[in-house]
Amino acid sequence: MPRCMVSRQKQQQQQQQQHAASTLLGKPAAKGPSPTNTFSNGDFIQLRMFQSESEYHSIANETLEDIQDAVEIALEEKGVGEFDVTYASGVLTIVLPSPHGTYVINKQTPNRQIWWSSPKTGPRRYEYEEGEWVFTRDESQSTTLVQSLKEEIHEIYGIDLDL
Questions:
Q1: Where along the chain do its domains lie?
Q2: What stretch or stretches form a coiled coil here (predicted)?
């Protein structure tokens, strides 16, 4: 299992917490595109997917570091010249040789999201759901962060990232 995916045990723990919350309130836990917002609207409660900000940082950092490693290895093995992959202060920057452009993938701590800016597909916001960072804004484009990056790098260079 890739390191960027949450363990099965962690998923079960999250499901148990959601069930416990719904049982406590006597109401079903809300399902929807924004699991990172905790609120009560009288009928539903939606729980944060992260138990703490520290947990968010740990999972987001691990994801971005895994992406950094996979991209560096794949581009080096392919012999792509003059690329730069750096991760610092919660921002992963992938600079590809012209005409491909620059990817910026960064942590968005207040929303507990990862934001993406791609020279091919533009900006996206990914939310953490069931062990993966998922683009939830447009159901017609529902995809994970890893899937999006793998597809775009494959389109550009014909290589598969090991993520």
A1: 8-46, 53-157
A2: none
Q: Token pair of 92, please?
A: 């992963």
* Amino acid, single-letter form, for residue 97: P
Tokens of 158: 């014909």
Count the neighbouring beta carbons within 10 Å of the beta carbon of residue 60: 24
pLDDT digits (tens, 9 = 90+) for 18-52: 444 443 444 344 333 344 444 444 444 334 478 89
List of E strands, the chain: 39-40, 45-46, 84-88, 91-96, 101-108, 113-118, 122-129, 132-135, 143-144
| Contact present, 52 and 112 (Cβ < 8 Å) | no
> How far, in Å, CA of 58 to CA of 10, rounded?
14
* CB-CB contact of 1 with 131 (8 Å): no
Contact 106, 123 (CB under 8 A): no
Enter the pTM of the model: 0.70
